[in-house]
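Supplementary Methods S3. Complex input for the glycine-bound model.
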Amino acid sequence: MKTLGVDLGERSYPIYIGNGLLGNAELVTPHIRGTQVLIVSNETVAPLYLQQAKKAFDAYQVETVILPDGEKYKTLDILYRIYNALLEHRFDRKCTLVALGGGVIGDMTGFAAASYQRGVDFIQIPTTLLSQVDSSVGGKTGVNHPLGKNMIGAFHQPCCVIADTSSLDTLDERQLSAGIAEVIKYGLIHDYEFFQWLETNMDKLLARDTEALTYAIERSCRDKAKVVALDEREGGIRAILNLGHTFGHAIETGMGYGEWLHGEAVGTGMLMAADLSQRMGWLSEHDVERVDDIIDKAGLPTRAPASMSGEHFMELMAVDKKVEAGKIRLVLLKQLGEAVVTEAFDHNLLQQTLIAHRTIEE
Ligand code: NAD
Ligand code: GLY
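Predicted complex, serialized as structure tokens:
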């Protein structure tokens, strides 16, 4: 097992990464203050891992909530089911919530923990690659609104993150690829050496080679933890973790939550950001080809949906947490391995990117 740290002063916490960690009481016990534990999972993950995961909490009163599965259920309405369970079972302020699932369960459980009785503890047990490399780390929690992705939420750090790599065995290929999108992101924004490693080792990741996957998870978490430690609440540098997300969130919202997976939309979005970065004169044609190749090799879509017009994109991109004083701010690439957050991009060039990427029929 590898243990990494997220260094946030009194809110610091460990990330445990390894094979067969589910059910390990020694990992969770030091992070639980009270006697009550609520495990939140969904109808896909619970039959696979709930029984095993529960073993870690044998010493506590354990209740469970099983939510419907899917991005379209990441809503305030469904969140209520978690509050209902907490109140029905009289959970107190020392209780601990446990998120057992992918990023949807992690974000929702985290937000429930952030808001129940003005904030209680929670533990992340991410079971998708995407959630192990990204969403379980850093404390962003929340739900979607019909008009905008992740628009309702809070920063609330977990007490620990337990990434059991063996849970990835049951993940389907599409979900694995979606997770790889966020892994590629770290290489593109500030870890060029990792980007090169990914170019060489993508086949191993797709073949679920344990050593390669563990290395990618560890390096991604290390990269993310570094950025989060510098800027926990995204006053500045943390925004680079959103490479491809302004385009991607527009695709997710525009197509209807769940049609495009988050990682798929981010993958295409990163390519659109690279395209615009080339039009800005920052990346070379060869750089963009390399981004295109790696996204394609990861099994991710490389073009935005043809059904979304440029106007539709612009309308949705204006509903983004990076917007300031009505101005869209984008994460672009100065070079491979170096991201910038800027509002000083040429809007005509953005239009060209939107046109160039709408070439696939649905
Ligand atoms: P997800 O939670 O929808 O999980 C994907 C699918 O895999 C679901 O059907 C789920 O039930 C299933 N699943 C989960 N674990 C499994 C397993 N081990 N075996 C088989 N199936 C399994 O999606 P995701 O890709 O994990 O996360 C995407 C969400 O995360 C989005 O809502 C996105 O906005 C959010 N996100 C948040 C952050 C953050 O910093 N908080 C960062 C990135 C993404
Ligand atoms: N996924 C972006 C962030 O955590 O900031």
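DSSP finds 13 helices and eleven strands in the chain. The pocket of nicotinamide-adenine-dinucleotide (ligand 1) is lined by residues 42, 44-45, 48, 69, 71, 74, 101-105, 107, 127-128, 130-131, 134-135, 138, 140, 150, 167, 170-171, 175, 178, 262-263 (CB under 6 Å).
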